[in-house]
Specification:
single chain, about 350 residues, Arc Repressor Mutant, subunit A, Rossmann fold, 2 domains, three-stranded antiparallel β-sheet, 17 helices, globular, binds S-adenosylmethionine, binds N-acetyl serotonin
């Protein structure tokens, strides 16, 4: 409901209208390396020094820095005539490139890929399908062929997805006690951030990352830093190839890529190979039962429309997919963060 104040002056609409300007300020400051420079230098810097070090115009940089101050991504300390800029705690932790909680790659994926796809949101809604043809001139029907249209694009996507688990991974993995499950497959496990979180939380478990051959290849080449013996890799197509037996199958952000029929096909296959007493852990962002929110899930569902063949679903909808695939009990845990957990048992 609108308040009398909103009708007099539509503040909320002005905020929404400017939403993408805000996103772009944050993305650009990240991309130019402002937060990294300020972290590395260890002291506050003037706009002149920042512009010089980053090879930017002074008058452009001044405006970007001031907008970042307005967004509380930077703080300015006015010293005699000159303003000196420094990171806020949140930008130091999340917006710098390195560091365990960095969201840098996630933001770059938004800025470079998702942003372009959303230019065609109206077309996606009209046609009810993804917009790779318009956004990138790609005619491939296959979702992941389009998402992985170059190695560079694949790496950007994988880095971006990995970043989420540094802030939400723990919550989804402790939502249920997974310690009874020792043989775990992370289907579509990608670059493995969730698998790494999983073995650190469950010292008696071993996790196999199952993904497309070129994804496993890229993971081994770009993402695996230390030899971790409790993580192994399995190359395959989960729709076409055999899935090995395990106690638990994690499907994180998998079902939201696909329409119901394909989800049931995949879950049925998993149900058949799952050990008795085993289960499947779905990790997804859940919509309220009446789809009234949360806003993030509603927006991500539109993103699934623009980028994939899937959608975000309610807990009941996931429960129905699990039941259709033959799973018995399903339990739901809402974490209060971006991603939630559903456990289905064989
Ligand atoms: N689970 C990871 C996460 O949440 O960060 C990655 C999710 S990503 C949205 C979907 C993953 O499924 C990608 O790593 C993709 O390569 C993988 N994938 C897509 N189609 C696949 C298939 N047919 N067989 C195996 N993996 C597939
Ligand atoms: C997918 C997940 C994502 C496919 C494409 C994607 C994400 C971005 N693009 O399975 C991560 C979730 N974020 C959003 C905005 O949907």
């Amino acid at each position: 409901m609108s308040s009398a104040e909103d009708l007099e002056y539509p503040h909320i609409l002005i905020q929404y209208q400017n939403g993408f300007l805000i996103s772009k300020v944050m993305f650009t400051a990240c991309e130019l390396g402002i937060f990294d420079l300020l972290k590395e230098s260890g002291k506050n810097l003037s706009s002149k020094v920042i512009a010089e070090r980053l090879g930017c115009s002074l008058h452009g940089m001044e405006r970007l820095l001031d907008a970042c101050v307005g967004l509380k991504l930077l703080r300015a300390e006015v010293n005699q005539e000159e303003a000196l800029y420094g990171n806020t705690e949140i930008s130091n932790l999340y917006l710098t490139k390195l560091g365990p909680k960095s969201q840098y790659h996630n933001l770059m994926y938004y800025s470079k890929t998702i942003y372009l796809c959303w230019h065609y949101l109206a077309d996606a809604v009209r046609e009810g399908k993804k917009q790779y043809q318009r956004a990138f001139g790609i005619s491939s029907k296959d979702v992941f062929e389009a998402l992985y249209r170059s190695e560079e694009e694949m790496i950007k996507f994988m880095y971006g997805l990995n970043a989420t688990w540094s802030i939400c991974g723990r919550d989804v993995l402790v939502a249920f006690d997974l310690s009874p499950f020792t043989v775990i497959y992370d289907l579509g496990g990608g670059a493995g951030a969730l698998a790494h979180e999983c073995i650190s939380l469950y010292p008696n478990s071993a996790v196999t990352i199952f993904d497309l051959p070129k994804v496993i290849e890229t993971t081994k080449k770009h993402f695996v830093s230390s030899e971790e013996r409790r993580i192994t890799y399995h190359e395959g197509d989960f729709f076409k190839d055999h899935i090995p037996e395990a106690d638990l199958y994690i499907l994180a952000r998998i079902l939201h890529d696909w329409e119901d029929e394909k989800c049931v096909q995949l879950l049925t296959k998993v149900q058949k190979v799952c050990k008795p007493g085993g289960g499947v852990l779905l990790i997804e962002t859940l919509l309220n039962e009446d789809k009234s929110g949360p806003l993030e899930s509603q927006l991500y569902s539109l993103n699934m429309l623009v980028q994939t063949e899937g959608k975000e679903r309610t807990a009941t909808e996931y429960g129905e997919l699990l039941t259709a695939a033959g799973f018995q009990e399903t339990e739901i845990k809402i974490t209060g963060k971006l991603y939630d957990a559903i456990l289905g048992r064989k």
